């Protein structure tokens, strides 16, 4: 418990000056009008599924792609998968473990990242939660057979990570964020990837997937090309290729926490193969409305993490009101597939109210498909989930992933896989 308290202290301390300057007063939220998700940029009303799919969805997706997260510049030349290790005796015999290498090739250059999979024994096509982890596959489990990442890792003294290298000392340090046995006991599998193997989380575009696509002399993406969030989403889609074709799993719920919640939402918006999307405390640039300017703002996130978004997003720093879109429209792109947004009561930086309002305003698109979303603008009480096709909860606690979250995600996802 002490190490998790220390981690929380280090996390909030690292936010430093940006947090101290953030607005946490509802009375100081500027008055704003949200762009209507069911009115096109040209002012035409959207009244049915066809108009949504062929007109409104397409133009919203293209705007986010070019002006917010950035466009993937080209197609891969090829990609491949290799089974590195498997066992039918993981988690005391209740799970099958697989470790897969995924290799992407472009312009005679390659990058390889690794996916750890646990499937309930006896059910090789079980539904799966797919999500990135922050420090390496070996950190989500105490399983000694899981390989330690060799990629660049952010230093963390509490985890014993120095010189940007993972080691045995960090094995299992994030087990509390991944309720693997709960998943297995409820018929779900887990597939997870260390996000730094796709693109290291630093403002340096020389050592991740971006570099595969560079033309001669290019050192960073063009203005409207992909930032790291878009790159991470791209990696999730390629992992889905493996899950779909080799393991034959059709029910994959893409999950992410914090910045990786942003990546999960963008992956779900751009790749309709994902059966559902779960965003845990994703905040600014994820589920939270940008126009509220509560907690982290567009200017703060672009300053602190300039590599996450396309450079074209910079024009909206301190200028959210001119955005033709807002994050409720990102959530609407996932319709009619199941969507779960979750907040934490003490996580003001991620603006829980802004996350909730996004789910409410996205729900009108779900209505076009006869799916039930969030029907009231009044936030639910803490620890009182709303579980429709569009689901939401706010729980007690801090910016983290807890058993409470997974218990609700599993219960909710179960209703869509039977």
From TrEMBL:
Pfam families noted in UniProt: GCE_fung
Q: Which UniProt keywords apply?
A: Hydrolase, Serine esterase, Signal
* Species annotation: Maribacter luteus
One function term, GO molecular function aspect: carboxylic ester hydrolase activity
Q: Which domain of life is it from?
A: Bacteria
Q: Which residues form the 4-O-methyl-glucuronoyl methylesterase-like domain?
A: 222-369
The answer to whether the entry has keyword Transferase is: no
- For this UniProt entry, which residues form the secretion signal? 1-18
According to UniProt, the name of this protein is Acetylxylan esterase
Q: Is the keyword Transcription regulation assigned to this protein?
A: no
| InterPro entries named in the record | AB_hydrolase_fold (IPR029058), GCE-like_dom (IPR054579)
